[in-house]
Design goal:
three-stranded antiparallel β-sheet; alpha+beta; 2 domains; globular; 11 strands; Ribosomal Protein L22, Chain A
Length: 248
């Protein structure tokens, strides 16, 4: 199942940061919006209702573009029409494929400004992504409220000209982990620690109350486009689970 020519030009396959286990798709929501009418036709009634509740036209267009592109992308793996896909939602709102595909494909979607990032993984290993446009957020205030003590100390020890980028990398890594777990903020952002050092590979270092949990996850930071930062988090597979690369 392939996307329409207009939509195809809006979806770009990035090299996976964690090898063949995950496919990453960068979606230009502005370009996808050129195909908005066709994308809207693939949405479920509840998705269309959610779109209608968005009063700001740009937010509504980007929601339809993101959900439509999500369906078009997942349909290529599932071998069905985009409109045929059915989703279920976890207690914290994370979407999963419903039915026989629920254990065959894991995915997660994030968006910021005009870009969305989709991760697709084979099997039931949980996956999470986050993407943020790098801006002028008050990173010192946000870090003081939400980051773990070790992360705040690491940021303070960096040269001032490196702190903003390190903050954004830390933020997307934390968000990707939270989204992969699919439990919302049941685990508060300051109750786990990721590596802040810009020169070090992204890593989950510590989780309060569970010293073994950090080793069950893999993190990768990436720059999907100029002015954006993103992170991918993937649950380590059980040895018995297949790690065959996906086709698309």
């Amino acid at each position: 199942m392939s996307a329409s020519p207009n939509l195809q030009s809006a979806i770009y396959n990035l090299q996976s940061a964690l090898g063949g286990e995950v496919h990453l798709w960068l979606i230009d929501l502005a370009a996808a919006a050129d195909n908005l009418g066709a994308l809207a036709q693939t949405l479920s009634p509840d998705e269309r209702a959610r779109a209608e509740r968005l009063r700001v036209p740009l937010a509504r267009e980007r929601f339809v573009a993101a959900r439509g592109a999500l369906r078009a992308s997942l349909a290529r793996y599932a071998g069905v029409a985009p409109a045929a896909l059915r989703f279920r939602y976890g207690p914290a709102g994370k979407p999963y494929l419903d039915g026989p595909l629920s254990d065959a494909i894991s995915f997660n979607l994030a968006h910021s400004d005009h870009l969305a990032l989709l991760a697709v993984s084979s099997g039931s290993a949980r996956v999470g992504v986050d993407i943020e446009i790098v801006g002028d957020a008050d990173h010192e205030m946000i870090a003081s409220r939400f980051f773990a003590p070790a992360e705040r100390r690491a940021l303070d020890e960096l040269p001032p000209d490196q702190r903003r980028d390190a903050f954004y990398r830390c933020w997307v890594c934390k968000e990707a982990f939270v989204k992969a777990r699919g439990e919302g903020l049941a685990l508060a952002l300051d109750q786990f620690t990721v590596d802040v050092a810009p020169s070090a590979p992204a890593a989950l270092l510590h989780i309060d109350g569970d010293p073994d949990e950090a080793g069950r996850w893999r993190l990768a930071a990436l720059t999907p486009a100029e002015g954006f930062v993103a992170a991918l988090c993937l649950e380590r597979r059980e040895q018995s689970e297949s790690t065959e690369q996906m086709s698309h």
